[in-house]
Amino acid sequence: MPRHIACLSFDFDTWSGFASRGMLTPTPISRGEFGVIGAGRILDLLASRGIRSSWYVPGVVIETYPAACERVIAGGHEIGHHGWSHVPPADLPADREAEEFARAVESIRRLTGKGPVGYRSPSWDISDRTLDLAIQHGCRYDSSMMGHDCEPYFARRGDKVAADAPLVFGETTDLVEIPISWSLDDHPHFEFFRLPTTLMPGLANANAVLENWIADFEYMRRTTEWGMLVFTFHPYVIGRGHRMLMLEKLIDALGGMGAEFLTLDEIQQEFRARAAA
To answer: Which residues form the NodB homology domain (predicted)?
Structure first.
């Protein structure tokens, strides 16, 4: 029996992503704070459709907005690890990465009563230590890499990579990788950034992005018996009015195409069961 799954995931970064880029003045911080408004709108929409989703929240955001995070839990949604700060692990020295990872786990434990099952790195750039930390702290899956578009796989660690030599594959772990894609992330499509050395134009037409995302799901339906797609949203991005209408249209279109909506934790459990069968 064909089974095609849509995972709605939300990186609840609020101001932390701006702060990690050195954008500490009031306007970018307020831009991130809008994410709390957006989160409320998203939770109302998901409740109206009976959909559970996965939320990845930096520790600094949990500590800043505990009531907003508690509302996510009250809606039946998964809370995943998204760092303590929003600094990418690949940019952190080993001791600081380990300290921040553990600190974020404790924030999630205080919020939910248990440690996280899943990890997603800030800005999707992990170090060669990150997967070991995730395993050490009891995570069962990672969602930071892009080795497939519609099928999970077991993550590797210890690859040997050089620009002038063949790739040497490392060890396959028991950590399920639930792959993501920049093309299925709202941020590069919609967010405008002007930094000292970078211009990110964003501000795309929402209907054009919607058309692409529905087409990706349709392609998966045509080419796989069992498949999943992870859509990634940021409440301060998708929470704007015309984009909320786009999200509503996406959910309804996918439902009309037979999509099952699962959390990433549910995906990793189903993938493990299929792998063991």
So the answer is: 26-277
Percent of the residues in the chain that have a pLDDT greater than 70, as a whole number:
100
271 φ/ψ angles, rounded to the nearest 5 degrees: -65, -45
215 Ramachandran zone, left/alpha/beta (phi>0; psi -120 to 50): alpha
Ramachandran assignment for 160, one of left (phi > 0), alpha (psi -120 to 50 degrees), beta (any other)? beta
The tens digit of pLDDT for each residue in 205-245 reads: 999 999 999 999 999 999 999 999 999 999 999 999 999 99
Instruction: Find tokens 């999509």 and name the residue.
Output: 259
**Sign of torsion over alpha carbons 243, 247, 252, 257:** positive
Provide the residue type at 32 as one letter.
G
Helix (H) or strand (E) holding 137: none
| The token pair that represents 227 in the structure block | 């498949």
Pair 223, 260: CB distance under 8 Å: no
In tens, the pLDDT along 6-15 reads 999 999 999 9
Q: How far is 74 from 23, CA to CA, in rounded Å?
A: 32
Phi, psi of 23 (to 5 degrees): -95, 90
User: What does R_g of the chain's alpha carbons equal in angstroms?
Assistant: 18
Mind listing the pLDDT tens digit for each residue in 100-127? 999 999 999 999 999 999 999 999 999 9
In terms of DSSP bridges, do strands 153-157 and 171-177 run parallel, antiparallel, or are they unpaired?
antiparallel
CA atoms within 13 A on the CB side of 37: 11
Q: What is the CATH number of domain 3-276?
A: 3.20.20.370
Crossing angle (nearest 10°) for helices 66-74 and 94-112: 60
Which stretch of DSSP H or E encloses residue 73? helix 66-74
Domains of the chain by residue range: 3-276
